[in-house]
Design a protein that fits this description.
This protein is mainly beta. It has 3 helices and 25 strands. Strand 8 and strand 9 form a beta hairpin. Bound molecules: 2-acetamido-2-deoxy-beta-D-glucopyranose (NAG).
């Protein structure tokens, strides 16, 4: 009894028991083999070169292994488990115990497993994964986690508690890619991955005649992108100087217009521009900017007095008022003081 135990532990710790003595080594079972590679199989040391011995290598059965070979040690630290060598070394046949921390268990429900250092320098079995066991009487959270970036991307409808569903909608108003609903499972994980919001772009706005864009032109523009506009010389901007790509994929506004100046349609008559009565030829280029009001002088049909009629320059067009009559060159040269723009204004009662 004691002898058998000693023999067994010797086999377990060092694996140096000769094949003849260890009737316990299993046959190599290729069909059920979980290891990718087994060393060469053997019956005795003479089957293996000078550096190897014929030793029992777990499921691989008797195999040619170099007894000094070691398995990885120490193992990377794990949050959920602790590993401990049961053997003085981590070489072939050494045993390693992996124990889950309190509150954690292996998939088979146990909290400890023993691994053996194989001839392929790997610890036997799969890497043990300890997962949290259901807390018995849970005063802890009973909701599924919602990461910061999810909260910042979506409006969440629902409270994310176990056994309930939530619905997502993109804060940006964009369409959802993925499932717009999710279910918080009993183990406090989501049934589906969180969806994402489709990226929104604005299409290029229509071009501005007589103006230009102060930016690189693109085939599409990302949200919050600003386009600034300028108008060519002598054109006046009518509309926003800047438009912004909104999260809806629309621009904050229509692009501006660049409006042309107007030629003052009078030559031999004074007009009022910006509250000042002037000769058109004294005005730069005899033109007024878009939006400017020009007041013309018209003659009373029967009396020798004048009244005014205003027109507004709109994008290069400034019509004369219907009542305005352009003086002839002779009238202008010979009787400048009798020009309509120079005679007295009619009394309020004179104008019908
Ligand atoms: C021109 O006249 C209109 C109507 O009276 C007025 O609303 C506008 O402000 C005027 N424009 C300028 C540039 O004075």
């Amino acid at each position: 009894m004691d002898r058998a135990l000693l023999l067994l532990s010797l086999w377990a710790l060092t694996g140096v028991v000769s094949p003849q003595a260890s009737g316990s080594c299993p046959e190599r079972l290729l069909g059920e083999e979980t290891r990718k590679m087994c060393p060469r199989s053997c019956k005795s040391d003479s089957d293996c070169g000078s550096k190897r011995q014929c030793l029992c290598d777990g499921q691989c059965g008797l195999s040619c292994v170099a007894p000094g070979r070691t398995c990885p040690w120490p193992l990377p630290l794990s949050d959920n488990s602790e590993a401990r060598l049961l053997s003085p070394t981590h070489s072939f046949s050494a045993l390693l115990e992996v124990r889950c921390k309190p509150g954690f268990a292996l998939p088979n429900g146990l909290d400890v497993t023993v691994r053996r250092c194989q001839g392929d320098r790997q610890w036997s079995g799969d890497d043990p994964i300890c997962t949290a066991t259901q807390p018995p009487e849970s005063t802890a959270a009973t909701t599924c986690p919602l990461p910061e970036e999810v909260i910042n991307t979506f409006t969440i409808h629902g409270d994310a508690s176990v056994g309930t569903s939530i619905r997502y909608s993109c804060l940006s108003g964009a369409d959802i890619v993925g499932s717009s609903e999710n279910f918080c499972q009993d183990n406090q994980t989501w049934q589906f991955p969180h969806p994402i919001c489709k990226k929104v772009f604005c299409q290029p706005p229509k071009e501005v005649e007589q103006g230009y864009v102060v930016a690189v032109q693109k085939s599409e523009y990302e949200v919050d992108f600003d386009i600034h506009y300028l108008c060519k010389k002598n054109f006046l901007m009518d509309g926003p100087q800047k438009i912004t790509c909104l999260s809806t994929g629309d621009w904050s506004a229509l692009p501006p217009h660049c409006r042309a100046r107007c030629v003052i349609p009078a030559e031999r008559s004074r007009v009022v521009i910006g509250g000042v009565k002037r000769w058109p030829f004294d005005v730069t280029d005899a033109m007024v900017p878009h939006g400017e009001n020009v007041t013309f002088f018209c003659k009373h049909p029967r009396k020798q007095c004048s009244f005014t009629a205003a027109q507004t320059c709109f994008d290069g067009k400034l019509p004369t008022p219907a009542c305005y009559l352009e003086p002839t060159w002779l009238q202008f040269k010979l009787f400048p003081h009798r020009l309509v723009s120079e005679i007295d204004a009619c009394e309020p009662g004179d104008v019908e």
